[in-house]
Structures are given as C-alpha cells and as structure tokens.
Specification:
The protein is an alpha/beta fold. It contains 16 helices and 17 strands. The radius of gyration is 22 Å and the shape is globular. It starts with a helix and ends with a helix. The structure holds ligand 7TS.
Length: about 425
C-alpha cells in the first residue's frame, strides 16, 4: 500500500504485526502478547535487516579510513543522522548527537552543560514524575556545583501541577528538565508551554523524550525545547541507538562528556581542543550499526505516519483503561486519553503487581511490574509498585482482552 493511502486508512495493525518476527513466537503454548514497549519496543524485519546488512556488507569504523568500506559506513551513519534530525524537525543534522539513548544523553547534558554553567545559588527544576535517569544526573551535577534541586508536584489525576510553576521558576532557575511523557503515569506534558515559561526566566528546557519521540509527532521548532533526548530502542530501533538534539549554540558552548578519539581537534600534553559539533560529543568507536538500524526504524514510522501512530495509541489506551476499570483495576495516571500516551499503570484489587505479572506471564502476556524507575511517582500515589501495560503500533484490542481475561486468573490465585 502506498504511504499516502495508508495514512488515510490509519494503521493496518495486522499487516504491521507481520513485519515483527518476534510477535509470531509463543510463550509456553500461548501466543506472545507483548505489552512492555515502554521498556523497549520490538523490532520490525526492516530494522533487523538494516543492521545485519551493515555488518554483512559495509562494516568498518567511521570517519577514519580512506577506503571504500569506511566511506560507505560513514555515509550510512551520517545518513542516519539526517533521517533522525528530520524526524524531530531539526533543520541542522549536526545538532543531533548519537549515543546510547536517554540515560547517556541526560548525563551528557547534566555533565557537559550543567557542570560548566551551574553554580551555588542556581536552581535546577525537575518534576515528581521524572524517570530516575532525569533525576540522578542532576543530583550529581547539583552536588558538584552547589546548585539546588526543586520539584514541581503531581496533581491527583496524574498531571504536572502547573499552579506551582510560577513560584518554582525564578531567575535562579538555570535548568528545567522535564519528561515529555511519563513512563509510569503515561502523562503527556505541555512541553511548548513549559519551554516558554523556562525561557521567560532565562532557563534552558531539557526534555526527556524517551517516551515522547516514539509515540507522538515531534517538531523541535514548534516545541522550542533546548535539549531533547531520544531512545532509539523504544521507537523500533536497536538497543543502544538514539542520542539527543540540542540548539546549536548550546552544543558549541557546552563541554564534551566523553573524552577520547575523534572528539578532538588537536591534543597537546596539557590540553586539547574539540572537534566541531557533532564530533565533539562522539568520542571513541560509536554504535554505528545501531544508528543505521535506527534509520530504518525512522523510515518505518514515517511510512506509518506519526499522527496515525498517536491516534492508534489513543484508541487502544482508551479501550484498555475502560476494560481495566470495569474489571476492578485502579488506573494510576490520567484517564483522559487526550492527556496521555499508551503506558497504562494500574493496581489490580489487592493483588501485588509482581503476582499479577507472574500470572500474566503464564498466559504469555509480558507486562512490567515494579516502580518503573519512578520512585517519586510511587510515593506520590502511595503505592509500592504498579503493573504497567504499554502499547505500540503492533498492539490490538484482542491483546487488551487477553490482558483483562488473565487478570481474572490473578484474582482467583492471589485475591483475598
Ligand atoms: N526516561 C524515560 C521517561 C524512560 O521511560 C526511560 C526508560 C528512560 C528515561 C531511560 O531511557 P534509556 O533508553 O536510557 O533506558 N524507561 C524504561 C521503562 O519504563 N522500563 O524500562 C525502561
């Protein structure tokens, strides 16, 4: 089907499923029902093939050898950067830095920008719904610089409490780091509004895009964020792919995070000078095949159309929330699907989330149970853990039905 026809028609999920080899496997004697895409997505054949073809035909290190293979590898790697940049609306591909994903990116930003520009008396504003990887690097930067951490609270219905925004963002705030979409609550945050608020006090806005970029159309020119992180493995790409976008002037002024080969211009005994952006941030041998695989994932998502991806997830999240509530589960996070994505956390009656996940596993259903690297969220909602079902382009209503039916079994086994 031509891309434009497919766009008009929405997602053809059965056809999409046929592109993912793993979805035809069984768990025991049950078909796999994969509901853990917020942890990592499955990979379509096109991505697996792109990575294999890279190794079979083009493998060499990049930016180094003057021979055909190295030139081909470099071309594929740089082409991946162009594709990823265009996917997020960045007009200059050099403003996209490759690395292993969001965790490495936030560390690179907190280290390279934070430690260089923060000082005692400055404030770093976070929210209570951040993933640990958007908390801990800032704690380290605060400890190193004497800056102070502040947090925006979460409302009862799982949104960022904006009533405290004005009092929390002051001329002391230098960084505001916030998730674009919560991986435990599913909440979408108003990034553009937060960027305006941050800029009004002269702060930079760092967006943790680990869950946002795979699921919602993103254009950094519209969002006007200063930094945006990308986890390629959550958007159909290989593990250890992705990186981050930043406005060019920030990349120019900040320090590199990893020192070594390629990231330098000149090395002297006492000091070195840095390579141009993006090379300055890509020290050592990079995740070349993975970024080439990610380019195939970008092609795949673009052919589906990100509006269609978003519409599908809204639809399936609405269905899941309704069915889970009917079955007696309490949703932890917003229930209004216009304000959320497809990661649906819930507490099922009085059954412990780990027990729920164990019973679901016996039915072939993969969900995550635990704190989801969101301990502040768990504390806010007074739960030790939740069960989380998270959906993507290949999930169906039938799989939601399988989840809800299997919950009944958890009740039989573990219910009071
Ligand atoms: N930020 C958010 C919002 C995330 O969901 C994750 C991973 C990260 C940062 C870290 O990204 P990484 O690509 O560097 O690992 N979230 C999850 C999850 O929800 N279950 O496993 C990993």
């Amino acid at each position: 089907m031509a891309v434009t026809e497919q766009r008009k028609a929405g997602l053809d999920v059965e056809r999409i499923r046929a592109d993912f080899p793993i979805l035809s496997r069984t768990v025991g004697d049950k078909p796999l029902v994969y509901l853990d895409s917020a942890a990592t997505s499955q990979k379509p054949r096109a991505v697996i093939d792109a990575e294999r073809e890279f190794y079979e035909r083009h493998n060499a290190n990049v930016h180094r050898g003057i021979y055909m293979l190295s030139e081909e590898a470099t071309e594929l790697y740089e082409e991946a950067r162009v594709k990823l940049a265009s996917f997020i609306g960045a007009t200059d591909p050099a403003t996209v830095i490759f690395n292993r994903g969001t965790t490495e990116s936030i560390n690179a930003i907190a280290h390279g920008w934070g430690r260089k520009f923060l000082k005692e008396g400055d404030e770093i504003l976070l929210t209570d719904m951040e993933h640990h990887s958007n908390i801990v690097p800032w704690q380290l930067a605060a400890r190193a610089t004497g800056a102070t951490l502040r947090y925006l609270p979460i409302t009862d219905d799982g949104l960022i409490d904006l009533s405290t925004l004005e009092s929390s963002l002051t001329d002391r705030t230098k960084v505001f780091a916030v998730t674009g979409m919560s991986n435990s609550l599913g909440t979408l945050t108003p990034v553009h509004l937060l960027a305006d608020a941050a800029h009004a006090v002269g702060a930079v806005l760092v967006v943790d895009g680990a869950q946002l970029v795979p699921h919602v159309p993103v254009d950094v020119r519209v969002l006007d964020c200063d930094f945006l992180t990308i986890s390629g493995h959550k958007m159909l790409g290989p593990t250890a792919s992705g990186g981050f976008y930043a406005k060019r002037e920030l990349l120019e002024e900040m320090d590199p995070f990893i020192g070594g080969g390629h990231m330098i211009h000149e090395v002297y005994r006492e000091y070195s000078t840095w390579n141009d952006v993006p090379g300055k941030f890509e020290g050592g041998t990079m995740n070349i095949a993975q970024e080439v695989g990610l380019a195939a994932a970008v092609d795949y998502l673009q052919a589906l159309g990100m509006q269609n991806v978003r519409a599908h997830e809204e639809e399936i999240a609405a269905y899941a929330i309704e069915r889970l509530q009917d079955a007696g589960a309490r949703i932890v996070g917003p229930v209004d699907v216009s304000k959320r994505g497809g990661a649906v956390s819930f507490v099922y009656r009085d059954v412990h989330p780990h027990d729920v996940a164990t019973v679901l596993n016996e039915e072939g259903i993969a969900v995550r149970a635990g704190h989801h690297c969101n301990q502040l969220v768990m504390r806010r909602f007074n739960v030790a853990a939740t069960t989380r079902a998270s959906f993507y382009v290949y999930n169906t209503r039938r799989e939601v039905d399988a989840l809800v039916n299997a919950l009944g079994k958890a009740d039989d086994v573990f219910g009071a």
